[in-house]
Design goal:
The chain is of the alpha+beta class and 301 residues long. The chain has nine helices and 13 strands. The chain has a single domain, classed as Jelly Rolls, CATH 2.60.120.620. Bound molecules: ligand 6CS and fe (iii) ion. Homodimer.
C-alpha cells in the first residue's frame, strides 16, 4: 500500500506544522566530502557554510561570466531571465548550468559536488540552477519559504533528499540582503494554505505569494531557532537543506549581493507529478529530462 503523503500542502485554508519524516544527512555516504563534525552541524542546523572555498581569481572569473550573461540581450529575452517588476533589472537567470559552459563545469567541481553527494548519500543531478543578482539599490527581497514545499507541490519532488549550494560571488554583508535562515527549521514541515494558481512561477519567481508560511508558524520556528544571517566574503559557499526556512531582505546598499545557486537532488529522488493535478513547471525551473548522475571533476576554472 502506498504510504500516504506526509508533506501535503496548499490543499485548503488551514496551515499546519508537521514533523519531517526524512533523514537530513543520508548515511549511505558514498564519498568523504565533509567531516563528521560538518555532518553533525548540518544535521542539527540545516545548513553548512564553508568559507574561502573559491579563490579571488576564480571568483573574478565567475563574476565576469555572471555579468556577461546579464548583459547578453539575447539571454534577457529568454524565459530563464526573471526581471524585477519595478527596476526592470535582471533579478535571476535560471538554468545557467545548461546555458553556460563555465557554470556547467562549476556544478561538477568536486569542492561542491562531493559535499552534496556526501550529505545526500547518493549520486546527484541538478534539479535547478540560478543566479540571483540582487543588484545594488534595487534588489528586491525573497520572502520566507521552504524550497521543498514548492518543489514538492509544484514539481512533484517526492522526498526531502535535496540541497541548495549557494556560492557567494560578491561579499554578502549584514547590509546588502544576505541569506537569512532559521537554524533547525528544516526538521519541521510547514504545510501552507491556499491553492497553487496556474503558471504560478510566472509570479512567484518575482514575488512569492503562495507557499508562504503562516506568520504564527514562522514566529514559532523563529522563537525556537532564532534567525542567522549567512554573511561571508565572496568565494564562500553555503549549503542548505531543501526544507530549511529561509529568505533574504531587499538590497538598498549600492553593493550587489550576487550568488549562484545549484540545487542538487538525489538521483533516487527524481520528480514525479505535482500535487493537485497542476501542470508541471517548465524544464528550465525543474529538470525532468536527460537526468544523469554528475561525476566530479577538478578542472581548473
Ligand atoms: O520556485 C522555486 O523553485 C524558487 N523559489 C524560491 C523562492 N527559492 C527556490 C527556487 O529558486
Ligand atoms: Fe529559496
Amino acid at each position: 500500500m502506498q504510504m500516504s503523503n506526509p508533506y501535503l500542502t496548499r490543499r485548503n485554508d488551514s496551515a499546519a506544522i508537521v514533523a519531517r519524516v526524512d533523514p537530513v544527512v543520508y548515511e549511505e555516504s558514498i564519498t568523504q566530502g565533509v567531516s563528521e563534525q560538518q555532518k553533525q552541524d548540518y544535521a542539527k542546523n540545516g545548513f553548512l557554510q564553508i568559507d574561502h572555498l573559491f579563490s579571488a581569481e576564480e571568483v573574478k572569473y565567475l563574476l565576469d561570466e555572471l555579468h556577461q550573461m546579464r548583459q547578453d540581450f539575447a539571454v534577457q529575452q529568454r524565459p530563464e531571465a526573471i526581471i524585477e517588476r519595478e527596476s526592470q533589472e535582471v533579478r535571476s537567470i535560471f538554468n545557467v548550468h545548461r546555458l553556460n559552459e563555465v557554470f556547467k563545469n562549476l556544478v561538477s567541481d568536486e569542492r561542491v559536488l562531493n559535499v552534496a553527494r556526501s550529505l545526500l548519500g547518493s549520486e546527484v543531478y541538478v534539479h535547478q540552477s540560478r543566479i540571483n543578482y540582487k543588484p545594488g539599490l534595487h534588489g528586491k527581497e525573497f520572502f520566507w519559504h521552504s524550497d521543498f514545499e514548492t518543489w514538492h507541490s509544484e514539481d512533484g519532488m517526492p522526498r526531502m533528499r535535496a540541497l541548495s549550494c549557494s556560492i557567494l560571488l560578491t561579499d554578502n554583508s549584514e547590509h546588502n540582503g544576505p541569506l537569512l535562515v532559521i537554524p533547525g527549521s528544516h526538521k519541521h514541515y510547514i504545510s501552507c494554505q491556499g491553492e497553487t494558481p496556474d503558471e504560478h512561477y510566472k509570479k512567484s519567481l518575482k514575488k512569492q505569494e503562495y507557499g508562504v508560511p503562516d506568520g504564527s508558524l514562522l514566529e514559532y520556528l523563529a522563537d525556537m531557532g532564532g534567525i542567522h544571517s549567512c554573511t561571508g566574503l565572496a568565494g564562500s559557499v553555503v549549503f542548505f537543506d531543501c526544507n530549511l526556512m529561509h529568505g533574504s531582505n531587499s538590497n538598498i546598499t549600492p553593493f550587489s549581493r550576487s550568488n549562484i545557486f545549484f540545487v542538487y537532488n538525489s538521483i533516487d529522488n527524481q520528480l514525479q507529478q505535482p500535487l493537485g493535478g497542476i501542470k508541471p513547471r517548465p524544464e528550465f525551473i525543474a529538470a525532468r529530462e536527460d537526468i544523469d548522475a554528475i561525476q566530479p571533476n577538478n578542472l581548473e576554472l
